[in-house]
Amino acid sequence: MTPARRFSLAVLILMVAAVPAFATHSWGGYHWARTANPFTLKIINATTNGWPTYYNTAVSDWNSSTVMNLSSSLGTANKHCGAVSGKVQVCNNTYGNNGWLGLASISVTGGTHITQGTAKMNDTYFNTSTYNNPNEKLHVICQEIGHTFGLDHQSTDGSSQNTCMDYFSNTGSNATSTLSTHPNQHDYDELVTIYTHLDSSTTLAASAIFPNGMDAAGEDPSSWGRLISSEGRSEVYELDFGGGNKTLTFVTWADDTHGRGNSGN
Partners of 117 in the beta sheet? Predict the structure, then answer.
């Protein structure tokens, strides 16, 4: 190889090495259908008991996305936290000792288009000394809301990628750590990737494709349908209505309760 070719190859290697890594954590290609970017997604704050502080921080963080604007409004706190067509509803309640810490549920039509979403935090666990700290609450609410946009986890091995979309636990010796309590640049990059293409129609309108509340994930694991994936403290369940219409539920299990889902179905 001539010196000139060796030099060219060395420059090419350096150029490739300089290209930044991009996030690849889309959740199954699920996304809100829309005809233009940036798009506005309506999100309902139905939280109580101190959670509005964490809700406001998470919504502000996700509003840093260049492709999406969140329009927040106040809702009425209710335990069911029914899904509302064209919107994301965020709730907390004492859902019981059923094993899960947080739930994110999306309704999908046409195979990939999100029509509505819910994010729920289980105060039965968050009221205990293990989880009752601001960093863990912010981590979980940020993550559950992120799932309703079509984001998966960046990591499930418990290490911190310094994003709320990982499974670092801000409990125990990490209770005072602020790692993994906000989105990172990879999350914003992935949202750009997910929403680069435009659709010919929108699911952001208020027209109900499913009856409101009928397809939101309930607090009982038996309502989630069949288990389709499991990794670490994370499981995903699918309730298939046929014709490309389904509800998917992302479960965050409490540290000591993983595996209490309806995995036999």
Answer: 88, 106
